Structures are given as structure tokens and as C-alpha cells.
């Protein structure tokens, strides 16, 4: 198998500052970067028009593209009607920033979609995603839900209720095998009409875990990336591991992406580990083997 998909890196995975993370992304052989844009210097309210132009130029001068921004606001996602207006507004500003910086994808977690479509939380999430989907579509952009909190078929059912594909999917195979035990290959085929960005990550499930333990739920604690990283490194329930050492069948996963005609980025995310730079460098080479060069 050979493919031409570009390789991206989550620059925050290096756990250094923004500029150094961008430089390291280039050094390890990536062609694109995904950047968190929810707080600090990358938060939309902290980036002036001039700063946006300068950052875009800086990234281009490194020979990189932005594969996506991460607009994950954590907490309970969009399950809480009381805080949704503020979160929707912030998400729109992140979408604006993405387009200004030259990408049309913002990835996020929206909270676990309830199993019961009659659950009031389902309608609250539906309303928020409908508004964001329409707004993203007006920018020719995508607000992309990361896979993991629910099985692929259920996520597709939720997406099918929305009026546009402005809300789409950031496909993460490791989240699926680690938490729900879902099959990423089947997931790609089920969600094929919605996949606009992917993560390349590997993991192993140690014991079955209810998604609420990982991703939170309204009425329970909210989601934080710090908590997920701690769980993924402790190995009590699941373990995030370097590419090729987990339960993701990358031969079949990459083949499935080619089968559905996916042309977007394969973006490496490494949320744990003592030597992320080394793991990311190896991950780039791991993907390049499939590209044949």
C-alpha cells in the first residue's frame, strides 16, 4: 500500500512553547501542524490582526501548513445549555481564526452523545452543533468532532440529524480501541462521509471503561486533557503507546482511509510519554514507510 496523505503533528505534543513546537514539527519531518487555540497566546482574543499575519507567515516560512486548529473547550462539551452560548461564541471565533490562518478545520470534543435520543441533553447538543455547523459551513470550514466518546454508528446517527456537514469528524483510532472498544476500520467506513481530519495514535484497552469515566458527563465531572493523559499513561484502564505497539491495525486503518478516498492529513498526537519528541520522530518515519518514501 502506498498513499500521498500529508503528515501532520500536534505541535503541543512536544510540550514546549508555540514557536519551538512549530520548529520541532519541521525538524521531525512533518508537513503540517495542528495547534491548540483555546487559551494563552493562541486564544483568538489574544491574537491581533497583525499577530495572525505574522504567525501565518512564520509557519509558511518553516515550510509548514496548518492541518487544523484544536478548539476543544473541555468541561462538559456542549451538554450544558446554560454555558453553551459562551462556548458557541468562542468556538465561532476559533473557526474565524482557523480560516484566517489558512486551515478550514477546527477539532473538538462535544461531550458524549446520549444513547437515548429523547434524553434532554441530546437536544441541547443537537442545537449547539446545528448552530456551529451552519456557521462553519458559511466559512467553508468544518467543526470536527473527535471520535472516542461513543461508537461510530451512534455518532453517525447524531451527525445525520444536522442540516449540514459543517459539523464533521476528526477520526482518532486510538480513542476508539482504548475506550469503547470500537473497530476503527469499520468506523472509517461508517463515518466516511464526515471524516475531514485524522489523528494517528495507538493504544491498548486494559479493561472496559465507561466513557463517562474518561470524557465526563453533565452531572458528573467535566473532561480535561490532563485527566485523560493521566489515565492513558497509568494503564489502569487503557494505555496510549507509540505507533505499532497497540491495538490499532494500521495496515487496515490506512487501507480503509484510502478506500473511502480520504485525502486529508494524518496528524500525529502523543499525549503521554517521557520522550514525546523521540516518539513523534519515530511516528513520522512509521507513516512514511507506508508512503513508500
From TrEMBL:
One Pfam family per UniProt: AP_endonuc_2
Keywords: Isomerase
Organism: Paenibacillus gallinarum
Xylose isomerase-like TIM barrel domain sequence ranges: 23-290
Protein name: Sugar phosphate isomerase/epimerase
PANTHER family: HYDROXYPYRUVATE ISOMERASE, INOSOSE DEHYDRATASE
GO molecular function annotation: isomerase activity
Phylogenetic lineage: Bacteria, Bacillati, Bacillota, Bacilli, Bacillales
Amino acid at each position: 500500500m502506498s498513499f500521498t496523505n500529508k503528515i501532520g503533528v500536534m505541535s503541543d505534543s512536544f510540550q514546549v512553547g508555540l514557536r519551538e513546537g512549530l520548529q520541532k514539527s519541521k525538524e521531525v519531518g512533518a508537513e503540517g501542524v495542528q495547534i491548540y487555540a483555546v487559551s494563552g497566546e493562541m486564544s483568538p482574543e489574544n491574537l491581533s490582526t497583525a499577530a495572525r499575519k505574522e504567525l501565518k507567515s512564520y509557519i509558511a516560512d518553516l515550510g509548514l501548513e496548518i492541518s487544523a486548529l484544536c478548539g476543544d473547550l473541555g468541561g462538559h462539551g456542549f451538554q450544558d445549555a446554560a454555558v453553551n452560548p459562551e462556548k458557541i461564541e468562542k468556538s465561532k471565533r476559533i473557526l474565524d481564526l482557523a480560516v484566517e490562518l489558512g486551515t478550514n478545520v477546527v477539532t473538538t470534543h462535544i461531550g458524549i452523545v446520549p444513547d437515548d435520543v429523547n434524553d434532554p441533553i441530546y437536544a441541547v447538543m443537537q442545537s449547539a452543533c446545528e448552530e456551529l455547523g451552519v456557521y462553519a459551513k458559511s466559512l467553508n470550514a468544518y467543526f470536527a468532532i473527535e471520535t472516542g466518546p461513543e461508537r461510530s454508528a451512534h455518532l453517525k446517527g447524531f451527525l445525520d440529524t444536522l442540516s449540514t456537514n459543517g459539523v464533521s469528524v476528526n477520526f482518532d483510532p486510538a480513542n476508539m480501541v482504548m475506550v469503547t472498544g470500537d473497530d476503527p476500520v469499520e468506523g472509517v467506513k461508517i463515518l466516511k462521509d464526515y471524516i475531514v481530519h485524522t489523528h494517528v495514535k495507538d493504544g491498548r484497552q486494559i479493561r472496559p471503561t465507561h466513557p463517562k469515566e474518561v470524557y465526563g458527563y453533565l452531572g458528573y465531572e467535566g473532561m480535561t486533557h490532563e485527566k485523560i493523559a493521566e489515565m492513558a499513561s497509568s494503564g489502569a484502564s487503557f494505555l496510549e503507546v507509540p505507533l505499532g505497539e497497540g491495538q490499532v491495525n494500521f495496515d487496515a486503518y490506512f487501507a480503509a482511509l484510502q478506500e473511502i478516498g480520504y485525502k486529508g492529513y494524518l496528524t500525529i498526537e502523543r499525549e503521554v510519554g517521557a520522550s514525546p519528541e523521540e516518539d513523534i520522530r519515530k511516528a513520522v518515519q512509521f507513516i512514511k514507510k507506508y508512503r513508500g518514501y
